[in-house]
Amino acid sequence: MDSIIVKGNGPLSGEVPIAGAKNTCLKLMCAALLSDEPLTLTNVPRLSDVATLGSLLESLGCEVARLADGRAMMISSADVTNLTAHYDIVRKLRASFNVLGPLVGRFGEAVVSLPGGCAIGARKVDLHLTALEALGATIDLREGYVHATAKNGLKGAEISFPFVSVGATENALCAAVLAKGTTVLRNAAREPDTVALAHCLQGMGADIEGAGTDTIVIRGVDRLHATTHRVIADRIELGTYMIAPAIAGGSVELIGGSRAIVAALADKLEEAGVEIVETDRGLSVSHKTGRVRAVDVTTAPFPGFPTDLQAQMMALMCTADGVATLEETIFENRFMHAPELIRMGAKIDVHGGTAKVTGVVQLRGAPVMATDLRASVSLILAGLAAEGETRVNRVYHLDRGYERVEEKLSGLGAQIERVADHG
Ligand code: UD1
Fold this sequence. Notes:
Layout: E1 2-7, E2 12-17, H1 22-31, E3 39-42, H2 48-59, E4 63-66, E5 73-76, E6 84-85, H3 87-90, H4 100-107, E7 109-113, H5 126-134, E8 138-142, E9 145-149, E10 158-160, H6 166-176, E11 182-186, H7 192-203, E12 207-209, E13 215-219, E14 227-230, H8 235-248, E15 250-255, H9 263-271, E16 275-278, E17 282-287, E18 297-298, H10 310-317, E19 323-327, H11 337-343, E20 347-351, E21 354-358, E22 363-364, E23 367-369, H12 373-385, E24 386-387, E25 389-393, H13 396-401, H14 405-410, E26 415-420
Parallel strand pairs: 2-15, 3-14, 6-7, 10-11, 18-19, 22-24, 23-25
Antiparallel strand pairs: 1-25, 1-26, 3-5, 4-5, 7-9, 8-9, 11-13, 12-13, 15-17, 16-17, 19-21, 20-21
Helix pairs in contact: 1-2, 1-7, 4-6, 5-6, 6-7, 8-10, 8-12, 10-12
The structure holds uridine-diphosphate-N-acetylglucosamine.
């Protein structure tokens, strides 16, 4: 497994192209199962999670082809022969549980492995299953698999989610587009990824209203057709590279970014003293060398502060002037980066879902362990601001969600390299 070595060496400058959004792309790929005509996606990120989901779709009988430049992908689900998504793949990638809605919606049947927990929390799927039951599917849990059947097809229903779930909203949305009658999803996710999924489904011929609000209305149609859809910019990658100049100093232009998809972060960074300007090509983020001000952050569903940027924000707060309180409300165990940051000299007290971070003048490089995707990148960010060398071990998580992170950061002047671990 590779490691990343980063040495803090002063301000960053230059530009970074923001890739297509991982979480959007994965759900669009699942949606391709809804039609016997091909779905072509452009601006597809080159990430291992995308490749893993591609393998799962192939195991179901789909044809998955990367087109000439590797940034486009054509998925044909004309010959789906297998309706079982196996544990071997689903356990690697929770988003693959989102083949369930499309498969039941189109074929009236699916067997999908339960994804299991993961490092950041229990991550249950009860909301996904109750939504499908409301749409008329029979759900049976056997030997770690969800067996879902709807012999006579799904039927529209009113579904009120008790709390916001991105994955459950998206699974229910996909299941409902081919159901008979009207489905209303209340307390639905408003994430840009969910809105993009609705737009793609509309391009395929689905009848959907209200995406981006907390109530989505879906009128079932008989079939969906081919379309081409461009994956939106990755707001979590964007947010991560916005935090880089805030922590290391400097000025960076993020090509393809827009403030609307990261407004909660942008507001917090400005409160901390970082300058953000919208440009013709994206967002320009600058911070003269020196400490930012401490700001408090509470994670929440969109448009709130994203949980997927909490670790990166914690890294920034480690060197801020003052005391910051970070409250995690989405996942119950998402502070695993804290002990690693403490190894670098950070002062962090975690009590339940709240972390109190007292900024220090200087972090110091140390060997640290990447525990999950966003934690990995937070340690790299901390390394940019640390004196000496930080070695982030076990970076395989990073490649699931960040394209060429070491190239993008070294392009900004950071001293960063990937080394292969032996043994
Ligand atoms: C998605 C994102 C992930 C992000 C998260 C929250 C993808 C591939 N992943 O994950 O990066 O961190 O949204 O913005 O899009 N829950 C239940 N029962 C359910 C479903 C969820 O209890 O049936 C809980 C989860 O354990 C969690 C909370 O609800 O505590 C929110 O989870 P959810 O919004 O569903 O996250 P994901 O879709 O898994």
